[in-house]
């Protein structure tokens, strides 16, 4: 596998670009989060998404009720059993999102250079001159000259259904705006975004809490995506709330969507388990020429902290088209080269016409980009950033990656109970897959016995290069050599069956023996 890797600094033969990519059991090291919705909720379509490379299913509660999402989740569980592909579940909150209230759902035509009034009176009917909104504090938050964007939910930027407004004046509770471009608002859900303005609403709304309390707790969600995270306190508050519901293992991913979140990024990163760079709203809040700078800076900080970075909005045009644009294909590759752990697909799979094809092509682009990712430079920069003295576990993890690269190992096998050791290995971005063998632990609450491990396995499905498998719970991670050899044989057999490990390959193994962490190199026979 290592020999397929090139460096961008090295000359690439033009003929090699035209060589077809070799099929692999692991389509790409970069993970894909797919949003399940109206166009992607049948068992058949979800099975196709899993086979194409989706490893995390996102449930977006801005659209649909709990019953709708529960039916989709049951279909996902059936698809997982049918395909034998593990998949994690992410609940995405609505957050303090401003919306246009159009009860009739009739199309609304807006003409450029005319005026429209935004009113908090939701009883009024939406017209070309009057748009009711679900927030009473807008008139206190904006001033003359401010920019307001209204677009279809998960807008792709290609629709004629997005409109820019400029605030002309504030009259009491109402805001009078000049329409900057002609558009027709059609559809059930329209969101309103005010550029670089603080909206005085809680990050975790009452509706969000109810969804987490019912649907989230009942289904033991793996990830909570916290929409419009603006402060570290937002993450702390969410963690306190979900802990009271018994969701102690659920990881919180802070979704950075505006300048306020950008300003407090470092503090948010310390509190969150991962970051979602929500480029749709960021693209409105930031000047266009600054969006890529934030992406590169944010991904780098996540990489150095060893926390997953997820990038959104990469192939919007595939919502309606079978192929991405040239710019989108390059954008996916650049997200991978920046160091992103995962690509999140929204409208492309939620309401898109080609959800399976979209996941497949994003995976193929990611795999090609990974071949020219400069692992050597990345490794050196990470070691330099971490500095000395390293912690014991980080020192062993980084050494395991170095050894694997030096001996051109085909895979790294890591025995883990918490998943921490495997994530540390993945932090150093080895060129080969990391097979994370999660060994369950037996726990009791004095009423019943339960095994841990399923959460840890699924939560690695959003980390670049990590591929989990659950071991037999009779073998603890620190058990005897005989037990470890038994699990190692199962892991090697899994690698051979998937085509990742071949005769005479070298394999690096990371495991605990007693109190010591051990790295060993195995050379396989026929």
UniProtKB/TrEMBL annotation:
Where in the numbering of this chain does the Pyruvate kinase C-terminal domain appear? Answer: 394-514
Pfam families referenced in this protein's UniProt entry, alphabetically: PK, PK_C
Where do the coiled-coil regions begin and end? none
Q: Which Gene3D superfamilies match?
A: Phosphoenolpyruvate-binding domains, PK beta-barrel domain-like, Pyruvate kinase, C-terminal domain
- From the UniProt record, give the pathway where this protein acts: Carbohydrate degradation; glycolysis; pyruvate from D-glyceraldehyde 3-phosphate: step 5/5
What does the record give as the reaction this protein catalyses? pyruvate + ATP = phosphoenolpyruvate + ADP + H(+)
SUPFAM superfamilies (UniProt xref): Phosphoenolpyruvate/pyruvate domain (SSF51621), PK beta-barrel domain-like (SSF50800), PK C-terminal domain-like (SSF52935)
Keywords noted in UniProt: ATP-binding, Glycolysis, Kinase, Magnesium, Metal-binding, Nucleotide-binding, Pyruvate, Transferase
Q: Could you tell me the EC number(s) of this protein? A: 2.7.1.40
Molecular function terms, GO-annotated: ATP binding; kinase activity; magnesium ion binding; potassium ion binding; pyruvate kinase activity
| NCBIfam families reported in the protein's UniProt record | pyruv_kin
The family note in this entry says: Belongs to the pyruvate kinase family.
Indicate what this protein is called per its UniProt record. Pyruvate kinase
| Native species | Quercus suber
Q: Please name the gene that encodes this protein.
A: KPYC_5
């Amino acid at each position: 596998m290592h020999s397929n890797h090139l460096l961008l600094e090295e000359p690439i033969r033009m003929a090699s670009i035209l060589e077809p990519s070799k099929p692999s059991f692991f389509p790409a090291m970069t993970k894909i989060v797919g949003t399940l919705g109206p166009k992607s909720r049948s068992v058949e379509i979800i099975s196709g998404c899993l086979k194409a490379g989706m490893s995390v299913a996102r449930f977006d509660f801005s659209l649909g009720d709990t019953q709708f999402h529960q039916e989709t989740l049951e279909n996902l569980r059936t698809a997982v059993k049918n395909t034998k592909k593990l998949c994690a579940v992410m609940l995405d909150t609505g957050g303090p999102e401003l919306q246009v209230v159009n009860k009739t759902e009739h199309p609304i035509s807006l003409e450029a250079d005319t005026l429209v009034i935004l009113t908090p009176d939701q009883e009024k009917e939406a017209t070309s001159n009057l748009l009711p909104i679900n927030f009473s504090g807008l008139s206190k938050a904006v001033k003359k000259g401010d920019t307001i964007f209204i677009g279809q939910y998960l807008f792709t930027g290609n629709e004629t259904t997005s409109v820019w407004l400029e605030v002309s004046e504030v009259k009491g509770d109402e805001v009078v705006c000049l329409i900057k471009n002609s558009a027709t608002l059609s559809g059930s859900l329209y969101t309103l975004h005010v550029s670089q303005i603080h909206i005085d609403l809680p990050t975790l709304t009452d509706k969000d809490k109810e969804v987490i309390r019912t649907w989230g707790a009942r289904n033991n969600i793996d990830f909570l995506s916290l929409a419009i995270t603006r402060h570290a306190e937002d993450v702390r508050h969410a963690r306190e709330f979900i802990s009271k519901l018994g969701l102690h293992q659920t990881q919180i991913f802070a979704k950075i969507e505006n300048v306020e979140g950008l300003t407090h990024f470092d503090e948010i990163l310390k509190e969150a388990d991962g970051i979602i760079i929500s480029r749709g709203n960021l693209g409105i809040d930031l000047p266009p020429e600054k969006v890529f700078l934030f992406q590169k800076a944010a991904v780098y900080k996540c990489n150095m902290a060893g926390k997953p970075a997820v990038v959104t909005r990469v192939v919007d045009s595939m919502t309606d088209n079978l192929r991405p644009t040239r710019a989108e294909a390059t954008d996916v590759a650049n997200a991978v080269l920046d160091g992103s752990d995962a690509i999140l697909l929204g409208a492309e799979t939620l309401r898109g016409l080609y959800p399976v094809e979209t996941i497949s092509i994003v995976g193929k682009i990611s795999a090609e980009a990974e071949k020219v990712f400069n692992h050597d430079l990345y490794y050196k920069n990470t070691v330099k950033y971490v500095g000395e003295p390293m912690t014991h576990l980080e020192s062993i993890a980084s050494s395991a990656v170095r050894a694997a690269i030096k001996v051109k190992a085909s895979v790294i096998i890591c025995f883990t109970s918490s998943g921490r050791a495997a994530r540390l290995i993945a932090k150093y971005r080895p060129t080969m897959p990391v097979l994370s063998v999660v060994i369950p632990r037996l726990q009791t609450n004095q009423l019943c016995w339960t095994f841990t491990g399923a959460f840890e396995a699924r939560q690695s499905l959003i980390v670049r290069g990590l591929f989990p498998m659950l071991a037999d719970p009779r073998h603890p991670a620190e058990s005897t050599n005989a037990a470890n050899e038994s699990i190692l044989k199962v892991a090697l057999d899994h690698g051979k069956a998937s085509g990742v490990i071949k005769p005479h390959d070298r394999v690096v193994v990371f495991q605990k023996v007693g109190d010591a962490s051990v790295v060993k190199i195995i050379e396989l026979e026929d």
